[in-house]
Amino acid sequence: MVALGLAGCGGDGEDGGGDGEDGGQLTFAQAKSPIEFDPVVLNDVPSAEVAMLVFDPLYGYGEGTDLVPQIAAEMPEVERDAQRWVVPLDSDATFQNGDKVTAEDVKHSFVAPVEENTENAGEFNMIDEVTVVDEETVQFDLQFPFGAFEQYITWEIVPKSVRTDNITYGTETDEGNTIVEENDFAQNPVGAGPFQFVEFEEGNYVRLERWDDYWGDPMPTLQEIEFRPVEEPTTRVTTLQNGENDIVKTVPPDSYPTVENMDDAAIEEVSGVSYFYLAFNCNEGPTTDPEVREAVDYAFSMDNAVEQFVEPAGVRQYSPMPEVLVEDWEFPIEEWQSAHNERDVDQAKAILDDSDSVPDDWSPTIIVPPDDKREQIGVSVSNGLGEAGYEAEVQRFDWGPFLEKYVSGDPGEYNMFTLGWAGSPDPDTFMYFLFSHEQIEVTNGTFFRNEEMNDAITTARESNDMETRRQAYVDAVDIIMEEKPHIPSYNLKNSFGVSDRVSDFSAHPVDQFSIVSGYNNTSVQ
Amino acid sequence: MATTGSTSDEVLDTDEGVGEADSEIESRVGWRYTLGQVKGDPTALAGLVVICFMSGLAAFATLDAVVFDYLSEYAVFAQFGMRKYWIAETFWISPVKEPLGARRLLPPAPLDNAYGQGTWDHPLGTDDRGRDILVRLVYGSRIAISVGAIATVVGMVGGTVVGAVAGYYGGWVDDVLMRAVETLYAIPFFILVLSFIAVFGRNLAFVMVGVGIASIPTFSRLIRSEVVSVREEDYIEAAEAAGVRDRNIIARHVIPNSFAPVLVQGTLQIGTAILIVAGLSFLGFGVQPPTPSWGQMLSKSRGVMIENVWFSIWPGLCILVTVVAFNMFGDGLRDALDPRLKN
Amino acid sequence: MGIYRYTIRRLLQAIPVMLGVITITFFLANAIPGDPVQILLGPSPSQSEIAAIRARYGLNQPLWQRYINYVLGVLQGDLGRSIFYGERVTAKIAERMGPTLLLMSSSYAFAILTAIPLGVISAKRRNKPTDHASRLVSLVGVSTPSFWIGLMFILVFSFHLQVLPSTNLVMPWANPTEIRSAATRLDVLVMSARHLVMPMVSLGTLQMAALTRIERSSMLEVLSEEYVQLARAYGVTESTILRKHAFRNAQLPIITILGLQLTSLIGGAVLIETVFQINGMGKLIVNSIFRQDYPLIMGTTIVFGVVFVVGVIVTDLSYAYIDPRVTYDEVD
Question: Which residues of C touch B305 (CB under 8 A)?
């Protein structure tokens, strides 16, 4: 590929591909290296950040959590009490190889995760059938009325023929799934998004260039984007300071003043749709006893921990519902907030000493993922328990082993853990995946069982009536606040250190950030 | 001189040393002589003073953090209020607890930074959780010194046995053992320790053993080359003729007479081990919190280096000073053993 | 024994060592707790999927069978497939080898180029202030954690002075068209040098200090040899003695040490690659350990083992070549 260089140079009169203005080249420091770019397969944030520029979804988000048709021509027609969703496609939509985006492609994008049993298979287990009505209409039939489904049709669309041609399929398994042997598409993605994939070297960089024939609106001003992984947060801040990168992801709390004090950079942030928490092992061990969980809440101050180690990069959150949802759904947050205990070590000590489920030499294990904020929360708990006379050990693990451990339910592995969940702006994302019995051992490591709560979550999931859903969620959260399988902790902002060279870049509550959209169009001087 | 001889600076010294001594008695006189030489060497003495100081701190920290913790389980001691960090908490400040509202990341006393003005309550400042850095440095010495020393002893004992046996018997025993040692040596030290910890867990004992095992080759190669020359001495042959068992000959005669360079290397190795453990901590493979250790402090300080560099400087300096001391003393010992190179 | 026979003998001796390395790494890597397949597949894989993946990576066979297969594979240059990346281990290593070799060789070059003059001057001006200064530098150099030097460099030169880049090492052989803000080969070289200077010095300081110490004592020893004394007695000037008689012989220990120091250099590279975000073998092995990617752990360790063994043989050979006094029979 030849860089287009300065605007106007040699471009006289020709309106070949480059009729957009030259918005420059952006370097963007991610927190980790992406691995693969096939939306059907990918399941990590850095890969998703790149893929969302190469692929367009059926529906995207507006500036907030509102949905905007992207490959879809208009909002879906909801029939049969939200069990059937019919989506008309934009007839202009084309993939970067020139093929039109058809209903077949959409169907493939939604059924492939299940057929190939990728890590995203669980996302679509409520879909009964996807039907191609005609070339420009897709119909989704669900197993139950599912009000939150509109958050799931934000899925990115892949070109079926290109994708399947670049995948080597292996044998079919007993469950009727197909094993994928090799996936070249994941390393050479082709989508219908505003940027084309150019080159990827794992751990070094990903380069994207503007797709000059982008069918959608608006055409990006930015000419080229280079993503680079810089794993250490302070080093990311350093690369912003010395101009190595134009945008750095996730400003660590202690570096907020540093970035704010930079002459030529600023922080761009927005409250995210996320929820971070401390959870208990309710499967086995002393923490199965609600009294013990209550005592842990007394032993340390979550307010203080969040204030010291998370703010200003995040805000204290008192329930599993992030701020955005609390506002949208008018949840009774004051009531939930009052369920939280002020720190009282003596009280904690008294409960723990008297409890029959706690051995005298109890030494609980708190496992934390490789993230400083969550580790600090764990250490605060450990220190609090230490003062109450119980030495707790904080063990930090890398993601692989951590994700394996926290759903084991084995008190030898963990009594408590800290984790977070980010998702789409519907309460179902948080309640179903973190608390439903169905998700125990999958994404729910608490093993907390309460039929009333589970029924409420199921009722809310399988209904399209806003008021029914709301009441069910309030009931479920009430139980959670009472029984404390989780102690809610904080909501992380999506924050970016942005150089003054960059203009019109925007942080986004769901997508992390937006390069180009109906309301912004990033460029670099 | 063999082309694949010893492993580091000792290349020059392996064919010197006290192997020249004709008998054990003379070698003991030689030791006294050596110590006398060290006394006259101000650099080595300075090193020794720092080592003694750090070891004293470490011993004190061990008493307070480990011994008291152990004793407090017995009612006899518990009734006095004995507990972990008893001395620190009674007379000074806790190395692990953080009082509510503790001021985080304060700079050393006379300075100020974004977090506030330093205070003399915390002369070197506070860490990321508001704990006093000075007290944590004192208690962190325990990990550095004990891990360094124990790992080195493990390596020294293992290496000495392997090297002495190989050198004494020669032949196929020598071949087999030395190939095994070379194998161990061919896996980069750091990577061997890393995999060792990955297998057995991030436990202090395994860190020590891992670093110790990884240093076996250094010692065994060193002592083997000594033993090869000691073996030819008259008194060994005399002992063999008198029917003394091999095991006793090796333990009583061969090792003591070949030990000097091992001791020098051991002194230097403690420094190396401290650096390695710091590196392990940096990658997250070290001592787990809240136990204070220099390496871990260094690793934690990385996240706030821009905002409060002091948190990084102090543990770094402690490591530097301690390792320098072991190197100065080790150099002094070597010079004493090989007077030709002495200043 | 001629140099060829000697070389062959050294290579033959390396075979059991390499076999030992393969054995140790195989069993160590397989003893790491945790299930890589679980990590690979995420929360809810089906039984048949697990079985298929196990079969694909040969994990369904008994350990001894896997060991034999692995050794046979390695003999044919097949290090297996990375579980995390799904790529061939050899391909992944080939991709990551460049940065590490660049980092290691530049650090060695830095160490040699600074250590030899420092050591010689130190020996020549023994016990003068220059000597003391050089000894102090080398003493502090061998005693400072390399990663800490790197962190301080980043803070000072990248953050505060803003004169050097802290991440994204540019390879000197990179294609200029692919590098942002580089038009010619010269631009790429300059960029590469700017990127390399901090990691190189951080990693090379320890080697520099160790070499300086040896260079100094080696020079001192040579200078006290009889033939040097004799030359002095004949009125040959000090500088001539140093240049013509002493220098060459004093370099012999340095050569040996260069081979043996490779192991500490590799260890240091792991840390320095982490500090400067260099995408080399060191980061690869640390991440593989975190991800329990057995084939990759074993592959990288074996490759490091080969680098080390070859390094030692090469130094031994060059030693034998440079020092005519060494007869090849003397070698153990």
Answer: 151, 155
